[in-house]
């Protein structure tokens, strides 16, 4: 019965993640007082977190996956700093790929470890690193990814659990973060299929669009 509503594949979710991310960044950089763009943008990270876990579960070589995330974290940092802070190096806030990187390292350990205690400690360390090094979305982003991984077999209940985390994080990240629940709608419609492959665009567009936005801000003196 539920399957008839699950009409979205991985390709659709990735396109939606890219689109909502762009709208969110347009709002953050050019129209900070126009909340609808930021509200729509809350969908982006929910989908990125979900698709990261999907990637970990389906990849044949997690080491290559980690290497890819690491490379894009390095490539994206200067565009991120230029776009948001107007300088090539800003160490008070790191781009989202570092959040994905520390999270996927934690997931790799979870896959291999048979010790709940060690997994708990490693997970906690990942949260502390995300917070201490000021990765984008901080501990909230990493805990969200962990939640998707740990509760992926609980179907409907995982959405309740993750939305609870999102609601709590409203007081720690962004006031509009409550609207992250909108991201659960396309996930609910996800059928688990891959669809078209857009891996290169999916990862590279983050750095590319930030460079473009940084250039626009520089030219227009926004």
Automatic annotation (TrEMBL):
Chain segments annotated as transmembrane: 12-31, 37-57, 69-87, 117-133, 139-157, 169-189, 201-220
Query: Know the name of this protein?
Result: Conjugal transfer protein TraX
Query: Which Pfam families does this one have?
Result: TraX (PF05857)
User: Please, which domain of life does this record's source organism belong to?
Assistant: Bacteria
Keywords for the protein's UniProt record, in alphabetical order = Membrane, Transmembrane, Transmembrane helix
Q: Which residues form a coiled coil?
A: none
The species this protein was found in: Chryseobacterium pyrolae
Has keyword Ribosomal protein?
Answer: no
């Amino acid at each position: 019965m539920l399957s008839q509503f699950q009409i979205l594949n991985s390709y659709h979710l990735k396109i939606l993640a890219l689109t909502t991310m762009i709208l969110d960044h347009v709002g953050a950089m050019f129209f900070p007082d126009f909340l609808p763009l930021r509200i729509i943008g809350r969908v982006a990270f929910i989908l990125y977190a979900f698709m990261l876990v999907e990637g970990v579960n389906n990849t044949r070589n997690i080491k290559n996956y980690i290497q890819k995330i690491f490379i894009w974290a390095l490539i994206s940092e200067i565009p991120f700093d230029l776009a948001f802070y107007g300088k090539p190096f800003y160490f008070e806030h790191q781009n989202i790929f570092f959040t994905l990187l520390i999270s996927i390292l934690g997931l790799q350990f979870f896959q291999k470890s048979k010790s709940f205690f060690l997994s708990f400690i490693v997970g906690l360390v990942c949260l502390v690193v995300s917070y201490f090094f000021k990765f984008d979305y901080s501990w909230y982003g990493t805990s969200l990814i962990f939640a998707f991984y740990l509760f992926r077999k609980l179907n409907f209940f995982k959405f309740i659990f993750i939305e609870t985390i999102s609601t709590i994080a409203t007081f720690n990240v962004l006031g509009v973060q409550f609207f992250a629940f909108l991201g659960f709608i396309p996930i609910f419609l996800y059928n688990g299929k891959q669809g078209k492959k857009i891996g290169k665009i999916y990862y590279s567009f983050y750095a590319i669009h930030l460079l473009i936005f940084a250039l626009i801000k520089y030219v227009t003196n926004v």
